[in-house]
Design goal:
heterodimer, A: mainly alpha, Cytochrome Bc1 Complex, Chain C, Helix Hairpins, two-stranded antiparallel ribbon, 16 helices, B: Cytochrome Bc1 Complex, Chain D, domain 2, 41% helix
Chain lengths: 422, 283
Amino acid sequence: MSGPSTYQPKTALTRWLDERLPIIRFTQEHLMAFPTPRNLNVWYSFGGILAFFLGLQIATGIVLAMHYTPDAARAFDSIEHIMRDVNSGWLIRYLHANGASMFFLAVYIHMFRGLYYGSYKAPREILWILGVLIYALMILTAFLGYTLPWGQMSFWAATVITNLFSAIPGIGQPIVEWLWGGFGVDNPTLNRFFSLHYLLPFVLAGVVALHIWALHVPGNNNPLGIDVKSPRDTVPFHPYYTVKDLFYLACFLILFAAFVFFAPEALSSPDNAERANPLVTPPEIVPEWYFLPYYAILRSIPNKLMGVIALFGALGVLFFVPWLDWSKVRSARFRPVYKQFFWLFVADCVILGYVGAHPVSATLLNTSIPLLWIGRIAGLCYFLFFLLIMPLVGRLEKTNPLPDSIANSVFGSAPQRSETAT
Amino acid sequence: MIAKPIAFAILFAAIVAVPAYAQETASASVPAGQSAAPRPVEVETLPPRNGNFSFEGPFGTYDRAGLQRGFQVYRQVCSACHSLNYIAFRNLADEGGPGLTADQVRALAAAYRVPAGPNEQGQTVDANGQTLMRAAIPSDRFPPPFPNEQAARASNNGALPPDLSLIEKARVGGANYVYSILSGYGQQPPAGLTVGSGRFYNPYFRGGQISMPPPLNPDSVTYVDGTMATVEQEAHDVATFLAWAADPKMEERKRTGFSVIIFLIVFTSLLYFSYQRVWYGQH
């Protein structure tokens, strides 16, 4: 899509460099001149926002690791040391803890945007699969990070999640003990979780590089879901999308700052302000908000093995989305039936999150409707959306006519303004 | 085109309001998860009473006099059983805290004895087997009332008095919870509830039966500033002090946050105009 390069080195030094390491050419092609559809809306800014948060998590995480002690006896104390004694330690820690929540909020918006505009369809299947892989790595990294403060919820989250693997018939228990490095969640577990929590973000960054590479081969999808046909359909990435993404990033940062400075513990469990105690189980073990829908799916199935399969299935099904949707039209704008199912699916995820936040025995508000059954139906709907609705609607739906080009839908059918140099 | 800036203004207001609301509901109410769980005895746990604390809200700060009175209550009443492991004497002089002077902190610390560690001969105990002690200095932390958990339980009818440094972060309701528990004694238990031996009825405690005897009485302390020492007042003051103990950087955090939000709003506005300028005629 980027076509033959237009970069011309102007000085002897840049000519010399260009023949050896064409890094300026690369930057010019991929970060500046890269032709990008001119009709991308706010929801396309979340890729840039996610890149920012990955950088922020790595930067704050490296500083936290300088003051944190990965030792079961001292981890909790070292967190309090960061909060009380380290200069601006509270700021770094709150940025990191709330940064994780914002990272997930942004990734969910990014993923729903992909589902809405059909960004997973040919030729972007690998781009989507790499994205799901990034999401899976994020889940793993966030879980490992959550255990590090070694509070009550850290400890019991580690216990519950590692015990999921005990559902595997025959070899389940040996696997769990191998994960623990002992016969219970203890110091060896904390040490390996810390090691992996430090490692995985860099693996994640590597997959992000592949994700962007896979984006730059076919180029961006866009809200119309139609291909770029002429240079009039695109604008260069810089300055058009650098300034637009920066603006939306700054808006998002206001939300982030509101949490960090005025409600830094609103999203965390009070139980985690208590030191880990293997002898006392908290009354309710609840994960962070971004895992609640999965938690609801896990708990709604009485059989442990089936519950674990459903949990991993709920994530795994995302890998197959490019082949589950048979529609020839990408964007939901022109798919009246799929569009409605999409919003039902969003509502379904919210309902699952609500169910996951409450105890298994709870009922809906003041009624006697058991949440367990609402969770079961919502969990079923989650899978039905991907396995039944997507293929069926894709085949049967009568889609609306597509516009003939991006430029015409932006400017009207006749060219009215001068073209942008691309 | 005037609609867009208005829409963004509303957006800003909304995204600042959301976390504020989340914080309010998180601190003011008991989540359904705690009230709906089945319990062995059918006792209703009351939601914490609202103490209307000065440090609530985005601009709230600690009431300095309240912190000092609360520290007096902790020192003269609570510290008999409860440790305050994460607080050093010097913290009492920190900015955003009770505001003691450096001299007051030195004098206060000197009144406490802490283990001295090995002497030149490498001994940690004297000829009688007693631990060598020295006067505390400002960098020492408050010495705990009991040497270990077993000693604490042995002295308290088997119950363990929790450390108070983080108690208001570790309980749903925070300062309101501590305030309600401390002022919630002396009420008639509901019919059918037999209060166990060595336990006390307190409707704000999960399950209704708490092992801590009523800690506060009228005039448990004589306030230096002449405030009437009612149980209400003492509970409110110590809840204020423990809010600071759990979150000593709150004032610095809110002050920084105010500047950061103002900066971001200005920065975002500039970016908005740049964005409109760059995209003029292109969208």
